[in-house]
Every structure is written in structure tokens, then in C-alpha cells.
Specification:
By secondary structure, the chain is of the alpha/beta class. It has 4 domains: about 120 residues, Ubiquitin-like (UB roll); about 70 residues, Alpha-Beta Plaits (2-Layer Sandwich); about 130 residues, Rossmann fold (3-Layer(aba) Sandwich), CATH 3.40.50.1780; about 190 residues, 3-Layer(aba) Sandwich (Fe-only Hydrogenase (Larger Subunit), Chain L, domain 3), CATH 3.40.950. It is built from 18 helices and 22 strands. The strands form 7 sheets. Strands 2-1-7-5-6 form a 5-stranded mixed sheet, with helices on both faces. A 4-stranded parallel sheet has the order 14-13-16-19, with helices on both faces. Helix 15 links the parallel strand 21 and strand 22. Helix 8 crosses helix 10 and helix 8 crosses helix 14. It starts with a strand and ends in a 6-residue tail after the last helix. The model has no long low-confidence stretch (mean pLDDT about 95). It binds 2 iron/2 sulfur/6 carbonyl/1 water inorganic cluster and iron/sulfur cluster.
């Protein structure tokens, strides 16, 4: 260890600790802008680029960036001398001199780290602004994400998420000096890059440089159109995070409030993606058992492991990186898309309406869902099964805009039939949940026995890669789990190399699964928030009267009245898909 003083307070830290972290130990919060610490995910971003975090170290001529300067024995550090404060302000003025001043209409306004820092440092004037020329870039709009590089401050956080955590490598620093920014190779548009639309870059961007495509105006227009019946579905992870946008603690469950608010917004039917998740389990679980059965009989054409296919970021990553393994993922569509397909067939029939008269809106913790619902294979004669997908943040905004008092609103329940769901569906929202839900159903279908224990705690947690063997009445089923695309790559590479032997694998692109999705209230790299959301998911599951997908009475009815049985021809046509490289 080494001993030092910071602002006249003594502290002892491990060798190699940065001044920033040592100060934190003393309760001193040195301001940072580019720095980001996601230690639970093994990620740290410290390019020491912005120089906002500089401190004065006795005996050194230059100010030191505290995020990347290590403590040494006897160091005397001052974090707020006039020289330091002056330097911070100057740095901030320089950053702002090359930044648009359209805060009033910026999509990040009110949630912008740069704006907050300007307030904190008391910036009132930007010297030379009258004649300063600003660097400008072409705006890039993809199906899910907007890049506005005029607002890029070169913090490199997005690059760290995309390259180090996701190993996608869609973004890197380009150009020099004044014209530098972060962009796909050759400054192409995002939709020409290997981007998966996971949105993790958006989730950490401190400014309005990376934001989601806003679908709320289209949703408002659809609700206002008397010729349209507008149906909304809400993803499992939304209910454990939406409250944060209204000042509630992370992990507060707001399922009933969310449902009531959606009804007040004017949706004709408030349904649940969880219904689609139960349906996914019926199809994917059956597919898993069929493949497993054939494999055990020695059928050489059958590929194992089966991979879950409900995360669109993961599917895109898979299509880009594993074109030799396209027959491995389950062909089951995601819950979002299964829901849309059933809403525009079965439910449209019940209403006596055409699919064109229905508008299906999804509320998702995810930005890739915006892209997924636009994919051509999920359209019938050009009409998409899911018309618009809005993020948890966008829903919060709609609620605020409509003067709904979210804190006070009385809880309501979803409509039926497509609002009924089980605990198995809820846990889809966290890493490990999809495979646990599948096990609950597959076990009972396979063994004909009732599961005594529903909580498969061996599949839970937040470690990046996990594995467990579940005993299916004498048949050991090996399960792998990964969240974050970098972890997925490691796991898949070992499968491809034949080093591991899994029967089924669940993969989710975002940290923690959907609860840490790119469309959620920004977690700013705080893993405690993701943990709290995960706990809430398991609480919701534990409190549900039905916790196995195959026991959902409306799913049973759907098969009886409409689909026949899982993997029937009709089910295949409506609920399964194919993959493309
Ligand atoms: Fe998910 Fe989903 S669980 S991907 O994480 O499978 O986005 O929450 O809606 O579709 O259900 C996201 C969350 C979903 C889907 C479900 C799956
Ligand atoms: Fe990379 Fe994901 Fe951002 Fe695309 S959305 S650039 S894959 S971090």
C-alpha cells in the first residue's frame, strides 16, 4: 500500500490506485467527463482526454489527470486550488467553443453530462465564441440510432463499449485535431458497419452525439387516428426500470402504474410482450427438446447446442460473425415479433379487423428492437407485424408530456387475452432468464413430472459467462449463458472449436440482459442499478400465480383455437424465422 494526502486528508490505498479512486475513498468526488468505470463488467474508459479531472500534485510542474495518475508514497494532492478550478473552466470553455448551443432542442437536454458539468463549473461565457468556427459533420440516421458528431466531445466511451465490451468494433476515433470524432470505418453510415444496434454506445454517451431514433410522434399520430386500433405491448425489463425516470428507486416495480399510464395515453389495448415470451417458450422449448431427442438418437444432421434467438443485437452479431453456424440458433422469433404476428392474425380475427387497421407498438428496453421490427422477414405484403418500437425512455417522455402523475396513478392490470403472462416470461428480462423459463417448461414436457423446485438459482447471477448442468430426470442437460457480446464471442468461439459441450445456450447482448438495454433509463455504468433491476425481475416472478409458460391459460387457448400445437405448420409459418449472412 501507499500513503498520501488529498485535500489535507490522509488516505492509504493499494499500489496502482489512481488519485481519482483514492479521492473517492475519502468521499471527494473529483469531476470527470470522459472517464467511466464499469469495474463489475471489467471495463474502464480512461483516455485522459478531457482533462476536467485535473488536480495539483505538490512538487510537479503540470496538473495531473486524476483518472489516470497513480498514487505514490507521500503524494500531496489538492483537488480544488484556484489553479485547478481555473484549468477546469478553461478546458470546459474550449470544449464548449466547438459544441452546438442548441440545448433547448437537444434530445439529451436535461440528461447531458456536458450540460451538467457546465452548470457545476459555473460557465457563463465562452471566450471568442463570436468568431469561433465549429467543426461540422454529416448526420447519420440508422433504423435505431442517430449519430450527430457535431456534439461528439471525443470522450471515447462509446468506442470502449463497442470495442472492449461488445467486441463489435463498429466505432473508432477518426481524423485529427479539430475534425476528430468517433465513427465507423471510412466514416460510413452506421447501417453499413457491423453495428448490432445494441445501443450500449448510446447508453454511455455523455452528450447528444448518440441518441435513439424517436418513434413517439408516429405513435401519437396513430393513437389520434380514429381508423386505427392501436395495441401496445411492454417488454419484461421495462417494468423494473421505468420508475427511475420518475425519481423512483432502481428496482421499483411499476407494472400496474405503467399499464394504467398506457391506458391513459389512449392505447386501445394494453397487452404484454410477456405473453409473447410464454409463446416463445412453447416453440423454442419444443424445438430444443426435438433437437435434443434426435441428437441423442444419433441423428448426425442435428446441430447442438441450440442458441436462443430473441435478442436482436445478438442475432445481428451472430449473422455477421458466425455465418458458418446459421443453422444453430433456434428458429423461434423473438417475443416482440411473435406477439406482433399473433396480434395481426389471431387477435385481428377476433376483432373482425384487417391487419392494416391495427397498429402494434412495442415498449422495449432496447434500441435494436427498432431495427428488428423493420426487418423485411417480419412483414406481410409490406405491413410490419410490429409497426413501431419505443424505448423505456421514450415511454417515460410520452407519460410526462401527457401530464400523467405517474407517482400517484392507481395500478391497473393488462387487458386479455394477450396481457396474461407467467413468471417464466418476466424473467426473460434478465440474463439467464430465458433459459430458466425454457427449462421450467422443457423439464415437465420431457419428463412428464411436475417440477418441485422452480428457482434455478444455478442459472442466475451477473457473471459474464456462466454454465450449469440441469438433471432432466437422469438426463444431464448442459447449459451455457453469456451476456455482453464480448462474452458471447468467447463462448461461441469455444463452441466452434469443439472445446465445450453444451446442449443449450442463452445469449443477451447487453450487460445484465435486457434490464441493462440501450433503451433503458441511462445507467451511467452503475452496475448497482442493473443489480437492483435484476432483483425486481425475480421478485415479480416469485409473486406471479402462474410461473410456467405452458400453464398460461390464454396460451393453451391460443393453441386450441388457432395454432394447433407447438411447431405445427401454422405455428411454423407465423412464429419462426430464418437467419441471413
Ligand atoms: Fe427483452 Fe425479449 S426479454 S429481448 O431482453 O426474448 O428488449 O425486456 O422484450 O422480444 O420477452 C428486450 C426485455 C424483450 C423480446 C421478451 C426476449
Ligand atoms: Fe457498437 Fe452497439 Fe453502438 Fe452499434 S449500437 S456502435 S454495436 S455499441
Amino acid at each position: 500500500t501507499v500513503k498520501l494526502t488529498i485535500d489535507n486528508k490522509a488516505v492509504e490505498v493499494e499500489k496502482g490506485t489512481t488519485i481519482y479512486k483514492a479521492a473517492k475513498k475519502l468521499g471527494i468526488d473529483i469531476p470527470v467527463l470522459c472517464y467511466m468505470d464499469l469495474h463489475d463488467l471489467g471495463i474502464e474508459n480512461k483516455p485522459a482526454g478531457c482533462r476536467i479531472c485535473v488536480v495539483e500534485v505538490e512538487g510537479r510542474r503540470n496538473l495531473a489527470p486524476s483518472c489516470s495518475t497513480n498514487c505514490t508514497e507521500g503524494l500531496v494532492v489538492k483537488t480544488h486550488t484556484p489553479r485547478v478550478i481555473n484549468a477546469r473552466r478553461t478546458v470546459m470553455e474550449l470544449i464548449l467553443s466547438d459544441h452546438p448551443k442548441d440545448c433547448l432542442i437537444c434530445p439529451k437536454s436535461g440528461r447531458c453530462d456536458l450540460q451538467d458539468m457546465a452548470v457545476k463549473l459555473g460557465i457563463r461565457h465562452i471566450p471568442g465564441q463570436e468568431f469561433a468556427e465549429m467543426s461540422t459533420y454529416r448526420k447519420d440516421t440508422s433504423p435505431a440510432i442517430i449519430r450527430d458528431m457535431d456534439k461528439c466531445i471525443m470522450c471515447r466511451r462509446c468506442e470502449t463499449m463497442c470495442n472492449d465490451f461488445q467486441t463489435v468494433g463498429a466505432l473508432s476515433g477518426v481524423n485529427r485535431g479539430f475534425m476528430s470524432c468517433v465513427a465507423p470505418a471510412f466514416e460510413q453510415d452506421l447501417d453499413k458497419s457491423p453495428c448490432t444496434y445494441c445501443g450500449q454506445c448510446v447508453a454511455v454517451c455523455p452528450t447528444g452525439a448518440l441518441t435513439e431514433v424517436d418513434h413517439t410522434p408516429k405513435v401519437i399520430r396513430a393513437i389520434a387516428d380514429p381508423k386505427k386500433t392501436v395495441i401496445v405491448q411492454t417488454a419484461p425489463a421495462v417494468r423494473v426500470a421505468l420508475g427511475e425516470e420518475f425519481g423512483l428507486k432502481p428496482g421499483t416495480l411499476v407494472t400496474g402504474k405503467m399499464t394504467a399510464a398506457l391506458r391513459q395515453l389512449g392505447f386501445d389495448y394494453v397487452f404484454d410482450t410477456d405473453f409473447g415470451a410464454d409463446l416463445t417458450i412453447m416453440e423454442e422449448g419444443t424445438e430444443m427438446l426435438t433437437r435434443l431427442g434426435k441428437f441423442l438418437e444419433g441423428d448426425k444432421d442435428v446441430k447442438l447446442p441450440i442458441l436462443t434467438s430473441c435478442c436482436p443485437g445478438w442475432v445481428t452479431f451472430f449473422e455477421n460473425n458466425y455465418p458458418d453456424m446459421l443453422d444453430v440458433p433456434s428458429t423461434a422469433k423473438s417475443p416482440q415479433q411473435m406477439f406482433g404476428a399473433i396480434a395481426k392474425s389471431y387477435f385481428a380475427e377476433q376483432l373482425g379487423k384487417t391487419r392494416e387497421e391495427l397498429v402494434v407498438v412495442s415498449v422495449m428496453p432496447c434500441l435494436a428492437k427498432k431495427y428488428e421490427c423493420q426487418r423485411d422477414e417480419f412483414k406481410v405484403d409490406g405491413n410490419p407485424d410490429v409497426d413501431f418500437s419505443i424505448s423505456t425512455r421514450e415511454l417515460a417522455h410520452l407519460i410526462k408530456e401527457s401530464n400523467i402523475n405517474f407517482a400517484e396513478i392507481a395500478e391497473e392490470d393488462f387487458d386479455r387475452p394477450m396481457g396474461e403472462s407467467t413468471g417464466a416470461a418476466v424473467i426473460f428480462g434478465t440474463t439467464g432468464g430465458v433459459i430458466e423459463a425454457a427449462v421450467r417448461t422443457a423439464y415437465e414436457l420431457q419428463t412428464g413430472k411436475k417440477l418441485e423446485r422452480l428457482d434455478f438459482t444455478e442459472l442466475r447471477g451477473l457473471d459474464g459467462i456462466r454454465s450449469a448442468t440441469i438433471d432432466f430426470n437422469g438426463l444431464p442437460v448442459n447449459i451455457g449463458i453469456a451476456h455482453g457480446l464480448g462474452n458471447a464471442r468467447k463462448l461461441l468461439d469455444s463452441v466452434r472449436a469443439g472445446e465445450v459441450n453444451f446442449h443449450a445456450i442463452e445469449i443477451m447482448a447487453c450487460p445484465g440482459g435486457c434490464i441493462g438495454g440501450g433503451g433503458q433509463p441511462l445507467h451511467h455504468g452503475n452496475i448497482a442499478i442493473i443489480k437492483a433491476r435484476q432483483e425486481a425481475i425475480y421478485r415479480e416472478d416469485a409473486g406471479k400465480p402462474i410461473r410456467k409458460s405452458h400453464e398460461n391459460p390464454y396460451i393453451i387457448k391460443l393453441y386450441e383455437e388457432f395454432l394447433g400445437k407447438p411447431m405445427s405448420e401454422k405455428a411454423h409459418h407465423l412464429l419462426h424465422t430464418a437467419y441471413f449472412d
